[in-house]
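Dear Dr. H.,

I hope your travels went smoothly. While you were away I took the liberty of generating a structure for the chain from your last submission, since the lab meeting agenda had it listed for discussion. I wanted you to have the full record in hand beforehand rather than looking at slides cold. The sequence, exactly as received, is reproduced here:
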Amino acid sequence: MSKLALLGGDPVRSDPYPEWPAYSTSEEAEAVMAALESGNLCGAAGGTFNTAFEEAFAEWCVAGGAVTCNSGSSAIHVALAAIGVGPGDEVIVPAYTYYASGTSVLMSGAIPVFADIRPGQANLDPEAFEASITDRTKAVMVVHADGIPADMDSISEIAAKHGIRIVEDCSHAHGAFYKGLRTGVLGDVGAFSIQHKKILSVGEGGVVVSRDPEIVACARSFVNLGNGTQTGELGPNLRMGEMHGALALVRMKRVDEENVQRRRNADLIRKQTADLPGIRAVPDDIPDAVTPVYYNYILSYDSRETGIPRARFAQAVQAEGIPLKCGFYQPLHLLPVFTNLEAWPYRLDENRASVEKGLYGEGKCPVAEAFMAQGHLELKMHPPASDREMNETVEAMKKVIENAGDLAGPEVA
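The corresponding predicted structure, in token form, is as follows:
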């Protein structure tokens, strides 16, 4: 057996791992310069690139319309506002997601109620969703975690039975399909991030989509200060700049092709790790109805099978030249922004009944708690990474597991 790189041996991979994203093509540069040279960097002041991108994105999603905004977090906020979420409402949110999924609910004046994920998966458990419903529940936020669409049939059935609106957080799921439909149009309204790390990447930005023209109109009004001079409604200025729209128009043309490579990468990893001790793909099975896009490739890790603590395993694989990470560390219902109850919506009388229920703290979502504390590992699948990188990733993990006996003792800095 070769010596672990963490302990002074040669790494499996000596070349830098391909970075995502890269903004280097002449087409991208020309698009940004075209926006700059137009002299109209604001869509509200004569710019046309955001409008063109909105039309193209709506057509791509087969939505009734799309509205751009300045970030993915804002997109969730806008989506919630467009369906009327506000003080006195509760929104059910999966415990496993980026914390903006929950803070956006707070920004709307409503209260996030966190529900558990399914064992062996990272998406909302429909049974946990239904168990969390109260007479104050206005919406459920479905996060297609890591680019794997959630069980929308079950969630939609429950939502319809209880008269609950569905908001899709599609920040990981650009171009994913569920039963032939793209994410974003599977519920009432969808929110996408197009931030630097995302599948559609322009640095910073967001998009809201819906098949309902009224929701699209409400979203557009909210992003533009509520059109208060005309309607009397209040809203923030969350508009996206024209250079971001120009860049998005170029980059979105590659998304479907790049997603094909992500799926190929994931299939290679899934097949080659199937027999590795302590390593399981998440989800453990991809339903036929689902076409994932793998913003992240998630592994469930069991240190009892490998004899290596999770953090030390990741550290050793990283030393071999592979960017394996432990990913999210805490589920949302344990984060101080929620447990401290200091954000302004918690102080509203309209929300007092929700706050007094003891919404947060350990034990509320045990599946997510155990998974994120002990078993969660994350790999990136983005092009230009391809067969070579996937093969070397598996080689590095096998090498570390085979050398488990050399990793006894404290963490190596």
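Two observations you may find useful: DSSP finds 16 helices and 13 strands in the chain. The domain at 26-253 is CATH 3.40.640.10 (Aspartate Aminotransferase; domain 2).

With kind regards,
E. W.
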